[in-house]
Each structure stands twice: as structure tokens, then as C-alpha cells.
Amino acid sequence: MGPTRLRTLLAVSLAATLFTAACGGSGDARDTASGEPVHGGTLTFYDPIQYAAWVPTASIWSNSNVAGNVAERLIWQDPKTGDFKAWLAQSWEISADKLSYTFKLRPGVTFSNGDPLDAETVKLNFDQHGSGDEKLGIPKDSFWTDYAGTDVVDAQTVRVRITKPNAAFLQILSNYRASSILGKPFLKLDLAGQGQLTNWVGTGPFTVEKVAGTTGVTLKRRDDYNWAPEGSAHQGKAYLERIVYQSVPEAGTRVGALQSGEAQISRNIAPYDEQTIVDGGGSVIGIPVQGEVNSLKIQLDTDAPTRDVQVRLALQAATDRTEINKTVLSPNYPIPSSALVKGTPFRGDASSYLAYDLAKATSLLEAAGWKAGADGVRVKDGKRLEFEIWVAPYYQVAQAVLELLQAQWKKAGVDLRIRSASQAEYTAAEAAAAKATDDDWTFEQGQTSTAEANVLRVSLGAGRYNALRFLTPDPTLESLLDAQAVTFDPAERKAAIQKVEDRIFEQAYIIPLYDETQVFGLAPSVHGFATESTGRTWLYDTWLDK
Amino acid sequence: MRRYLIRRLGQALLVLWAAYSLSFALLSALPGDAISNRIASPDSGLTAESGAVLLRYYGLDQPLWEQYLRGIARAARGDLGLSLHTAQPVQDLLADTLPSTLALTGLALMVGILLAAVIALAVNYLPSARLRGLFAGAPSLFASVPTFVVGILALQYLSFTAGLIPSVDDGSLTALLAPAVTLGLVIAAPLAQVFGASIRTTRSQPFVHVLHAKGAGEGYIFRKDVFRNSSLPVLTLLGLAFGELIAGSVVTESVFARDGVGNLVVGAVNTQDLPVVQGVVLLSTTTYVLVNLAVDVACPFIDPRVLVGVTS
């Protein structure tokens, strides 16, 4: 099931996508929900990944479609507007120095074991996220920085303190990966105990009924649930009685099962399968995942020609994102025009940097001394303008996109060589390249999802993930990234993010490919489908017609 | 016989130790481990500081030889360590997934043996030469079509088109049938070939001609003499086919999205979850060794001549 099969699929995909594009976009079930919602029924959800790694402070994205329906946060971020709404906290206040956040908890909220939600429990949760617990083997949560502590003001009031102002802190408190509130019995468990979903005690509209290894999870509705986020379509218990999550790695099975009625929702639908689902009476929903766009991040710790900003700008100009969208993706994927995905709060505009201009690319390369060689590939000082790139195994469409990019860059005289590998090989090679400085790992395809513009600081900041692998940080970029994080006025914040984007693209640090998008296939019986702010399912308002 | 058994058990322990050490060496030779790779990957959101807590918790900060010695001492007590990915004890993960895999491989084994027996008998006893030829071609067909192709075709036609079987495991017997047949085909091929050939050889032996001359019918001769005489190579092969079953279950469980040891190891390999991979290696080695031991012990009962060289 290696590259050969993928390539065959890609050939089919090309034809199918063109067809899809010609037929226009697909429906949005959130708008087409018809009739009165009904309670009851079991929804089966097919997901390509295995469910593992449940430790809340060291979570990974793969569990996200399950976790958010079991555990909840103090505040809810509206996926459409990015605004923060009341949830487990009914109100909150931020101190004038932006260093302490006081939350008034919603009364009457209980965990699935019957324990009431109180300030003490919230503190225990945040202490584990903010500081970790070495004795229990619980690592500190990397989303949490500059944590000073949490005070129990009274049973229903809790104050969280940080040491440095952070405009993105409220978003962290609303993030499903960073701030889920779990019950006391769970927090006493060590790493092995917290790693098991069956131990999760949450306040969510669903509870864990059954876990089948890493390949299946069954959630059951909590009938006494009555604290849905402000602005939800309804209150009280969820409509669905049960949700059965099943790990199904075969893309064909995920599509076929929607048609045969075995599954009602399938996640990760390939562009070439979208039309099949629509033809079968279902619908396809693409949800842009707020956060960074999916891009090639230039790895600045190599000796590659990309150390020269002129070469980076040339590669940027040689990249035709519209063609990528039309040829190997679908209208469900927005064409990138920023470092951030469409809909991300405070997103800037970088469209002027991202226009396709082959002539500009050619002249930039000429000026940088890269002259056309005998075989069409440019040469400088006897060195060919060639790069190697590894296909990131996490993205369904990565290989197809890179193959098209290869053809686009070839027109500018750049030779891009694509390497496909298993996930294990990829991560091992990636880790090795991260340590070495003389490697060929020139580009890394990736993105981080967070519905907050500060994700750029988390990802690109030299002191954080350092995704650009700066050996010496770019002081201009660093100061702009830091400045936006302490700017609280919305208009000023937007301007501050625009400055960050300008710096990123003047230096062509990243080459955006497409807006990261979660594509779901829905059976005709599904109504009221919704996700939280980063495209992970929130099935509280979802219902099935009989 | 007792000395033979003790010697075989000693060998089995040696094989287990070798499997553990070899897999440890091979997996340690890969750059990084599940946690270091997560720290290095910008997608994972695990900082070096948080990762260090995990590395200490798992003991991955210790020198390799110490990890090896501790690991082997723990394994001897039946403690296979914690998964680096899910943090669950490896023996729990194995215990959770084993029943499903046993059901699959058990049924597949039965399907395989049944198919092999039918083919072997048909190839030898069918009256029409054309039909015999048809059956003779079956094993090569089974062996040459990859498991995942059969699996995907079965899903497409039996599940999505005809709606006869569920496409994923829902716990029912029908859900087990398609993957078991898919897997059964793989091991039916060599078994049918060997059993068929073995029957043919036995039937051409002089003693069978004598039985014929005495007036015994084909059915009587098969039941009384040919079957027992021709089953020894099949039994030996069955032990080896068990390895095939374990390997085949990895692909089959993936295609049919079944929870099981195969699926567990796919996930573990993808995330470089060393303790889980090692746990599965140990489990399959143990099973393989035990099955082959059982086969070796059973052989003398079927054909006492096997023991001639051992007991003298």
C-alpha cells in the first residue's frame, strides 16, 4: 500500500477533482438542517486515525473528535466569530494589568461521577497543565506558558494568574487540547492512568461507555446534562443517544460505509472522493481549520540555497496556489492569502506576496546568480538548484500537492525531489534533521491549529517550537511576534499581526500551499453537524432523522 | 521423550531471549524514539521540558544497556512496560486485543484447513481430469492474490454493494467471516499444495497397491492408511503457517478496521512505540514456539518412526 498505489489513486483523483470543481461546491448541512430535531439514535463516526494518547497535558490532535464531547472548558470559542462565550464559567474578569483572570463558575454543573464542579477542581486541573506533576509523570502542558498559579477565591470563583500578559491566554483556556476540566479522581492518576480514556471523568454531554483498544470508542449521552455553551442551538441533553467512533484507515471503506448506511459521518474525505459522496445523496463539508495555513516552512539550519532570501522569494512567486486548488484539491479548501487560515481571528492579508508570477521568479533567480543549466535546472558555481522534500504523512493531500508543486517549480528551473516514507521513517528522519545542521531537510510541510493569531508566535518563535529552525533568531520577527502577544486592543492587534505577516513574507519564511481543511462526509440523515473552533466535531446539537 | 521435551523447552527460551534482544537492538538502532520524535516534531506541541518529564517517567533517559537489562528483567516477571504512546501497560494492551485476533486467526485457520482438505481431496479423487486440473490451479491463485486486494474486493461487493456483511467489526460472527476467509485463503494455498502432493505420493506407495489388490475401496484406504501417512508434512507445515497467520492478520485487521494485535502493532510501528512492538514480538514468538513445539510433540504419535533417531 505504498507510493505506487497512492500514485494510481492520484491519477484518478486528478480527473475526479476537475469534475468536482466543475460541479461546484458541496452542501453545508448546518444550513440545510430541516424539520424539528429529534432525540435518539446512534451515530457512527468513521475516522482514519487510531485513538491513543489521552493524557490531557500531552495530548495530540488525533483524539480531538472524541475528547471535546466528553470534557469541557470554562469558555467556548465561537467557531464562526472567534468570540468567547460562557460555558462552565458564567462570567469572567481580566485584571487591568492583564495578569489575572477571575472566573465565576456556573452553578449546578456536575461531573459524570456526580461530583460538583468547584473552584478546587479547576485549580487542580490548571496546576497540572501549568506546572505538570513530576511524581505522577505528568508533563507540563506546552500550551501553558508563564503560569503563576490558580487561587480558589470561593467555592464558585477561581483566579488564574500568569507572569506575563498574553493576548492569547483566553483562547488557551477555551482550547480543547489545553484546558479541558476533568474530575478529581482522574487528576490523582499517574501518567498511565490518565492515558486511558475509560478513566476520563468529564462534564460533557456524553460519557465514555466502551473503549475497544485504540480502534473504537462508544460514547453514551448524559441525560442530566444542562450546561451547553452560550449560543448553542438547544439546551438540555444532547440529541444523539450514542456515538460510535471507529478507526477505519481505508479511505474507500470510509466513503463506502456512508453509502451503505453503516456510518453517518466519515472524516478525512479525499478530494477525489467528494463527488462520490454527493452522488450517493450525502453531503461534504469542508471546515477550514483555524490556525496556520498548510505551508512549506523553510528550514534555516541548512546550507541550502534557500538561505538566500532572493531564492526563497523566487520559490514563493513560482508557486501557483490557484492551480493547486483547482487541480488536486477541491473548492472546499480555501486558497491561502495569509499565514493564517481563513476565519482565524486577527488574520492579516498577504495576498500581494502570494501572487503567482513566473517572470518574477525567473528574474529573481537570475539576479541571484542561478543561470539556466543544460537540463533546464538552474546552476550556480557548479551546483544545481535542487531540493529534496519528504511528504508529510499526516496530510491526506500532501503527495498530490507536492507533485504539482514539483511541476510548477520546474518551470522556474528548480528541481524538487519528492520522497515518500512511512510515518515511522518520516518522524525518525525529521528528528534526525532537527538535530543536525548540515542535512538536506530544507522544507518541512506542516501547520499548527489554534484559533488565535498567536499561533504564529508559538510555531515560528525561536524560543517556542522554532518551526523555521533559526540558528540565530530574526530579531525583527521575534519582536513583532512578542509585541502582538501583549496588544489587547482589537484594532491594534490586527495591525500588529499584519506586521508579523509582512515580515514573514518579505523574508519568504514560509511557502503556503493551501488552507488546512477538515473534510467530513455526511449521510443524508445527519443534521445540525458542527465543530468547535479548530474543526473538531462537537456533536451536541447534531441529530439524526428517523 | 522427557529429555527431548526439556531440550525443546530450553531451545524455546533461547529463541524468546534472542527475539527480545534482536528486536531491542533493531528498534534502538532507529534514530529517536516515540517521545524524542514528538519533542522534535513541531506539529506535536511537546516541548523539550515537558518531554524530559516523560523520558524520566519511562526511564528513557538511562543508558541503553540499563534499559535493556531492566526491560528483560521486567519481561521475565511478565511486565512488558508502558506504551510510549498511550501510556498503558503493554500487557494490558495485548490482553485487550488478543481475543479479537485469536477469534480471527482461529476461524481463519479452520477455514484454511477445510479449504486445503477439500482442494487436496478434489485434486486426487475427482473423476474428471479437467475438474482436477481446475482445483490444482487454486492454490497458486490463492497464494498470488495479496490479502488486501481480496479484502478490499470483499468489502466492495459483499458490504457496500450487497450489504451482506458489516464493513467494520461490530462484534457479530458475520463481521468475522469475511476477514477470516480472506486470511484463510492465504494459508490454504501451501497447505492444499502439500497435502495434495502428499496424498499423491502415499497413494503411489506399494502398500496401497497391495490394499487395492486385496479389494479395499478408495474411501476405506484413505481413512485407514492414506490420511495418516500423508498428514505428517501438513502438520509440520501447519506450524509454519501459523507465522503466516500472524503476519496476515496485520494486513487483514487494517483493511477490515478490526481491533487486534495486528492493528496494535501497525500503530506502534508508526509511532515508534518500542515497548508495544517488543511486546507483540514476544507474544508472536511465544505462540510460534509453542505451536511448533506442540506440532513436534504430536508428530511421534502420528508417525512413531520420527522418534527412532531421538530415543536411541
Automatic annotation (TrEMBL), chain A:
Organism expressing this protein natively: Actinoplanes philippinensis
Pfam families assigned to the protein according to its UniProt record, in alphabetical order: SBP_bac_5 (PF00496)
InterPro entries the record matches: Peptide/Ni-bd, SBP_5, SBP_5_dom
GO MF: peptide transmembrane transporter activity
Keywords: Signal
Gene3D superfamilies given in the database record: Dipeptide-binding Protein, Domain 3 (3.10.105.10), Periplasmic binding protein-like II (3.40.190.10)
Keyword Isomerase listed: no
UniProt cross-references to CDD domains, sorted A to Z: PBP2_NikA_DppA_OppA_like_15
Signal sequence, renumbered to the chain: 1-21
Domain Solute-binding protein family: 84-430
Keyword Lipoprotein among record annotations: no
PROSITE patterns named among the record's database cross-references: PROKAR_LIPOPROTEIN
GO cellular component, one term: ATP-binding cassette (ABC) transporter complex
A single BP term in Gene Ontology: peptide transport
Protein name, UniProt field: Peptide/nickel transport system substrate-binding protein
UniProtKB/TrEMBL annotation, chain B:
UniProt keyword annotations, A-Z: Cell membrane, Membrane, Transmembrane, Transmembrane helix, Transport
Gene Ontology BP term (one): transmembrane transport
Domain ABC transmembrane type-1: from-to ranges: 98-299
CDD domains linked to this entry: TM_PBP2
Spans traversing the lipid bilayer: 12-30, 102-126, 133-155, 175-195, 232-256, 276-295
One Pfam family matching this protein: BPD_transp_1
Source species, domain of life: Bacteria
GO cellular component, one term: plasma membrane
Mode of membrane association: Multi-pass membrane protein
Localization: Cell membrane
InterPro entries in UniProt: BPD_transp_1_N, MetI-like, MetI-like_sf
Record family assignment: Belongs to the binding-protein-dependent transport system permease family.
The protein's name: Peptide/nickel transport system permease protein
Organism expressing this protein natively: Actinoplanes philippinensis
